[in-house]
């Protein structure tokens, strides 16, 4: 049987250090997440792959707003290009469901690359 010390994760209070290190009460500034320098968080957990992916991922809400804006500008053209005619028709029939679903599914995937490219090149 293993006993783990009780660790109270209280959240970060100082707005200049809003990121709470995983499995710790320590808080750090966002600029120190995945900066390549060990020692910011205990066990260097601010440098692990999962944390780095999450830190670089746009918020789901931002992706959903992007999808809605693209739809307003171009109709189903973007979705037809990305997913084909069949799924594009389904998106047309149930936009709220699909915008939410796509934003959740692609918030850390290839769509993020496409969104970032589109935002930079607009």
UniProtKB/TrEMBL annotation:
<protein>
    <recommendedName>
        <fullName>Prohormone-4</fullName>
    </recommendedName>
</protein>
<dbReference type="InterPro" id="IPR002172">
    <property type="entry name" value="LDrepeatLR_classA_rpt"/>
</dbReference>
<dbReference type="InterPro" id="IPR036055">
    <property type="entry name" value="LDL_receptor-like_sf"/>
</dbReference>
<keyword id="KW-1015">Disulfide bond</keyword>
<dbReference type="InterPro" id="IPR053103">
    <property type="entry name" value="IDLSRF-like_peptide"/>
</dbReference>
């Amino acid at each position: 049987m293993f006993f783990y010390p009780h660790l109270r994760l209280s959240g970060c209070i100082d707005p200049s250090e809003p990121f709470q290190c995983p499995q710790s009460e320590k808080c750090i500034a966002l600029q120190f997440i995945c900066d390549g320098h060990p020692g910011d968080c205990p066990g260097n957990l601010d440098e692990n792959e999962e944390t780095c992916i999450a830190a670089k991922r746009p918020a789901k809400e931002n992706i959903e707003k992007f999808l809605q804006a693209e739809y307003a500008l171009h109709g189903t053209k973007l979705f037809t290009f990305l997913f084909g005619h069949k799924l594009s028709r389904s998106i047309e029939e149930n936009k709220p469901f699909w915008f939410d679903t796509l934003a959740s599914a692609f918030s850390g995937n290839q769509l993020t690359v496409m969104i970032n490219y589109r935002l930079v090149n607009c």
